[in-house]
Design brief:
The complex is a heterodimer of chains A (447) and B (398). With 447 residues, chain A is α/β, with parallel strands linked by helices. Chain A contains 16 helices and eleven strands. Chain A is 36% helix and 7% strand. With 398 residues, chain B is α/β, with parallel strands linked by helices. Chain B is 41% helix and 16% strand. In chain B, the strands form four sheets. Chain B has an eight-stranded parallel sheet. In chain B, α10 packs antiparallel against α15, α13 crosses α14 and α14 runs antiparallel to α15. Classes of the chains: A alpha/beta (447), B alpha/beta (398). Chains A and B meet through α3, α14 and α15 of A and α13 and α14 of B.
Chain lengths: 447, 398
């Protein structure tokens, strides 16, 4: 994968300095039609979290954690390298060291080892499907460390959170990092929870920048990383001045893109997130992609897109699948650009949710659980009109049966649908941006 | 989706080639949903699904017929719903052929306190604790709703390790139940009912059963009551005895046989169809089947082994993934099981295709020798029973 994509990018003649012209493009990391990045997990250090690779891959998903950091391609290169892709989420990593050796022996990169050599690899640290509040640390390594405060993180009820004690030593083992290309970990972010003292936030921003500078140096020295991109992490918790400072300073470094950390769903509320993201992206160069970690719900995605975000982690379909749910939120806009902005699409009878004052989407309209008895003999597809494999070939009744009998195929089919649905949503987002109809899309999604 | 049955007889067997040495034959068996090439291994998709493998994946692997399980499906989701969904084909969206077993085996093996009477098998549903009777009529009714291309009669199943009068009782009852099943079949034009030869490990009883059941005009016969832990020496003798007395022009289905060696030997003994949960079940323990045995992918030795499971295998798993990757994946994700399941199904299907081709090409005995040579490190390790069984049909392993 590594070599192939490098050649492709080279052939396309784009480089970090090019400005992306035309309307803003968004690409979901993990867009099933447009390629994307992969995620492989790396156990977070006690204080620091690195950007890991996020795999976009064919279902069934790749798990197994500790595949290491791969290399990141700039946003425009992502578009060039787009291929039909795949989505995956890695569960918490526990076997970091073992896999590191394996990758070293393999010498051809994480993506190829995982059979994902035709996708782009983006490395981040945290598993967004098991997000935990920023700065939350335990000293346990590996799975089995339950989240002591499940209420703090909506998606954490059944998953264990992993915070490794593989801390700075990993980073300071510069020799190890240099050994193999796929083993390079990208920029670090030291996240502080909202509400932290100003002093702590300032220090975390500093630390993040210092670490980034180290990474930049290493990156420049390492031959195997030529053609790979480094993303810088913007921190700053909920302190506006620090956010702006972090953004400005990070933008001065030779990075290929930016990761906006500390904005995860459940960590920060929508209104504040929107404000801070706008403030951050105002400081960032137009021609470099911005990725936000841990945001997946469609209304929140739209809010981030409005704020200038390009890339999202694709964990949301996975989380739905794990709950036995099929994504069903609406995102279809009328295809005729002539009618853009002139009238709202009519809402069908299946549009049954309510919209709260902040414009949040009601949970019931985002996905439907297939286990309830009423679907037992419902021979319709999960979502009428959906073109995914599951909806073209199977009924709710069959899915229901698979869930009741706890068959493995349930997850396979649900994931196929959920990835497809989510990807199509992102296509809609891009279409809306290209035709200046984001408001229309918002009203369709929110209802 | 809606399937289309081929008009006319629901089963037509065309014998393409017969091995001049052994009793092996290669046939085309035309069923309502599609033609099946034999010898054939039928993967088991118990609850209307092949353990995580989609219908499309299964089709792409070249599977032409697979099994559904009447007991499980009869419990959940039940025959009415499946009938409403256009049969099991419609419910799981499988276009090709389906075989359903009668449910008898599951009941005696899975359900505690099941009680066999002349009426049928009485048991308690594990799901709602109600008492249920599975009679021949009831079994066929369910299978009629499932709409499978081949249905199995309800037989009185006894373990092959049982001896004494129970064996004869079961054999005779199975004959009577066969007649009741034939009478109960609502769809004789579109669904085939196979008889199941019983008689345990007793030649006399087997003879009687064969004689009686072959008097009935059923489109195919299964050899049952074997592959249940009996000595292999006894096993193969009952198989060959059965095929000696089954009509040439009807298919022979040996139930529950699935290890590679067993498949090859039993083809030599004259069997056409096989089923077994082994390949899919062993996949879920991380065991990958290969021509020289099996790889236990959980073992450390595969951690840095970057070859595919079988470098010569063309299945999707072997084309894209390595042993090292699967080894790592096995530790933490069910995805690994899917990959290995796909490989194992592919292995079994490819094996049978090779067997079939060698019969057609007239070199089946050579194929058997090469197969055994690959599978076992030395001649001394060839299983005695296999050597004897093959010798009995003229294939010597020198």
């Amino acid at each position: 994968m590594h070599l192939g994509l490098r050649n492709e990018a080279g052939a396309a003649g784009t480089g970090p300095g090019d400005t992306a012209g035309g309307p803003r493009r968004t690409g979901q990391v993990g867009d099933a039609r447009y390629g994307g990045a992969g995620i492989c997990r790396w156990p977070p250090c006690e204080r620091f979290r690195s950007i890991l690779v996020r795999h976009v891959r064919r279902f069934p998903r790749f798990g197994g954690g500790s595949l290491f950091t791969g290399v990141v391609w700039g946003g425009y290169q992502l578009e060039v390298a787009f291929k039909p892709a795949v989505l995956t989420t890695a569960p918490p990593a526990a076997h970091f060291a073992e896999h590191q050796e394996v990758l070293e022996a393999f010498r051809e990169g994480a993506a190829k080892l995982a059979g994902l050599h035709d996708t782009v690899l983006f490395c981040s640290l945290q598993d967004p499907a098991a997000p935990c509040p920023a700065g939350y640390n335990t000293s346990k390594v590996g799975r089995g460390a339950p989240n002591p405060d499940p209420g703090s993180c909506r998606t954490c009820e059944t998953r264990t959170c992993v915070f490794g004690a593989q801390s700075v030593s990993l980073w300071s083992a510069a020799g190890r990092i240099e050994l193999t290309v796929p083993k390079y970990s990208l920029a670090d972010g030291d996240a502080q929870p909202a509400g932290s003292s100003l002093k702590r936030v300032r220090r975390s921003v500093e630390r993040t920048l210092t670490h980034l500078d180290e990474c930049v140096l290493l990156h420049q020295k390492t031959a195997e990383l030529v053609g790979a991109e480094l993303f810088g992490v913007v921190e700053g918790a909920d302190v506006r001045e620090e956010r702006v400072r972090s953004a400005r300073e990070t933008a001065k470094r030779p990075v290929g893109g930016f990761v906006l950390d500390g904005f995860q769903s459940g960590v920060m509320d929508q209104a504040l997130r929107a404000q801070l993201i706008a403030a951050v992206t105002a400081e960032l160069p137009r021609d470099k992609p911005r990725l936000v970690l841990g945001v997946g719900r469609p209304d929140q995605v739209l809010s981030c897109v409005e704020g200038g975000v390009d890339l999202f982690e694709g964990f949301f379909p996975f989380v739905a699948t794990e709950r036995g749910c099929a994504l069903c939120f609406r995102f279809a806009m009328e295809p005729d650009p002539e009618s853009a902005g002139t009238r709202l699409p009519t809402l069908g009878p299946s549009h049954l949710h309510s919209v709260s004052r902040e414009g949040n989407i009601a949970a019931a309209s985002v996905s439907l659980a297939v286990l309830p008895h009423r679907y037992r003999d419902d021979l319709r597809p999960l979502v009428v009109g959906c073109g995914c494999y599951c909806c073209r070939n199977h009924s709710r009744a069959y899915l229901h049966h698979l869930l009741v009998t706890k068959e493995l195929l349930a997850g396979v089919l649900l994931m196929l649908h959920n990835v497809s649905h989510y990807s199509s949503f992102f296509s809609s987002v891009r279409e809306a941006l290209a035709t200046d109809r984001l408001e229309t899309l918002k009203s369709v999604v929110l209802g | 989706f809606s399937g289309r049955a081929i008009a006319g007889a629901p089963l037509v067997l065309r014998i393409l080639a017969e091995c001049p040495v052994s009793k092996a034959r290669a046939c085309d068996m035309t069923l309502p949903h599609c033609t099946v090439n034999t010898p054939v291994f039928m993967p088991v998709g118990t609850q209307g699904t092949m353990k995580g493998v989609t219908a499309e994946q299964l089709e792409n692997l070249g599977c032409q017929i697979c099994l559904g399980n009447t007991y499980h499906l009869g419990m959940r989701p039940g025959p009415e719903l499946i009938e409403k969904a256009k049969g099991l084909h419609g419910f799981m969206n499988w276009r090709r052929s389906l075989l359903t077993d009668s449910g008898g085996f599951q009941m005696v093996s899975l359900v505690e306190l099941s009680q066999v009477t002349e009426e049928g098998v009485k048991f308690r549903s594990p799901y709602d604790n109600k008492e249920i009777l599975l009679s021949p009529e009831q079994s066929i009714a369910i299978q009629n709703s499932l709409g499978s291309d081949i249905m199995m009669q309800l037989d009185d199943v006894v373990s092959s390790t049982v001896t004494g009068p129970r064996v004869e009782e079961a054999m005779r009852r199975s004959i009577r139940w066969l007649d009741r099943c034939i009478a109960a079949n609502r769809n004789p034009e579109s669904q085939n009912l196979f008889a199941i030869i019983q008689g345990g490990l007793n030649s006399e009883l087997r003879h009687i059963c064969l004689e009686e059941m072959t008097k009935r005009d059923v489109p195919g016969f299964a050899i049952g009551g074997l592959s249940g832990g009996e000595e292999k020496d006894d096993f193969w003798k009952m198989v060959t005895l059965s095929t000696d007395h089954l009509p040439r022009e009807k298919p022979r289905y040996l139930m529950g046989v699935g290890y590679a060696v067993d498949l090859v030997v039993c083809v030599a003994l004259g069997c056409d169809m096989f089923d077994c949960v082994f390949p899919t079940r062993t996949a879920r323990f991380g065991s990958a089947l290969v021509p020289w045995g099996s790889l236990q992918l959980k073992h450390k030795q595969y951690a840095k082994d970057f070859q595919p499971i079988d470098p010569e295998c063309t299945c999707p798993t072997c084309r894209r993934h390595s042993r090292a990757y699967l080894h790592a994946l096995l530790k933490c994700d069910t995805a690994a099981l899917h990959h290995i399941t796909i490989h194992n199904i592919s292995y079994q299907l490819s094996l049978m295709q090779s067997v079939r081709q060698s019969i057609i090409d007239g070199c089946f005995p050579q194929f058997v020798r090469a197969f055994m040579d690959r599978m076992f490190p030395s001649r001394e390790q060839y299983p005695r029973w296999a050597v004897d069984a093959l010798a009995s049909v003229g294939i010597t392993l020198n």
